[in-house]
Design a protein that fits this description.
142 residues; mainly beta; Immunoglobulin-like; four-stranded antiparallel β-sheet; 1 helix; 9 strands; globular; DUF4352 domain-containing protein
Length: 142
C-alpha cells in the first residue's frame, strides 16, 4: 500500500535504485490556465491546465539520476491517470535531471486534461508502474 498524504506533506520512500528519498508536494494549481496562457501556450476548447510543484530530497549516497517528476501522474476520480505534458512554463521552472546526495531538487510539472475531469490525487512513483514505493497525495478537496 503506497504512503499517502495531503498537499504540504513530505513522504519518505525509495528511488528506482533503492536510494532513500523524500518527496514534498508543495502546491497544486488547478486550474492553471492563466499560467499556461501567460507563457504563450494555448489550450484547446474543453481543456484545462494543472501545475504541480514537488521537491525531491535525496537522502542516499548516490545521485538520483532521473528528473524528480519522471513518473508523476494525476489520478482522476474514476481511476484514470493523466500523464505530464511536455510544456514548460517560464514562470514555474520545470525539473532538471539529477539530484545529488543530500540535495533537494524542485520544479513544476504541467498537465493538460479535459476541463470536466475531477481529480482525486497526485501520484509519484520511482518506476513507470505504481507499486509499493509509490506515494499518493489526496487533492480531492481542492
Amino acid at each position: 500500500m503506497p504512503k499517502s498524504g495531503k498537499v504540504g506533506n513530505k513522504l519518505d520512500t525509495v528511488g528506482p535504485d533503492g536510494e532513500p528519498v523524500s518527496v514534498l508536494l508543495v502546491e497544486v494549481v488547478d486550474p492553471a490556465d492563466f499560467l499556461f496562457s501567460a507563457a504563450g501556450h494555448t489550450l484547446e476548447a474543453g481543456q484545462r491546465a494543472v501545475v504541480v510543484h514537488i521537491e525531491l530530497t535525496n537522502r542516499g549516497t548516490a545521485v538520483f539520476d532521473s528528473p524528480p517528476d519522471q513518473h508523476l501522474l494525476l489520478v482522476a476520480q474514476d481511476g484514470s491517470t493523466v500523464s505530464k505534458s511536455s510544456v514548460a512554463l517560464s514562470s514555474r521552472p520545470p525539473h532538471s535531471a539529477g539530484v545529488s546526495p543530500g540535495e533537494t531538487g524542485g520544479g513544476h510539472t504541467v498537465f493538460v486534461l479535459p476541463e470536466e475531469t475531477e481529480l482525486r490525487s497526485v501520484e509519484w512513483s520511482p518506476r513507470p508502474d505504481p507499486g509499493p514505493h509509490s506515494l499518493v497525495w489526496d487533492i480531492s478537496d481542492l
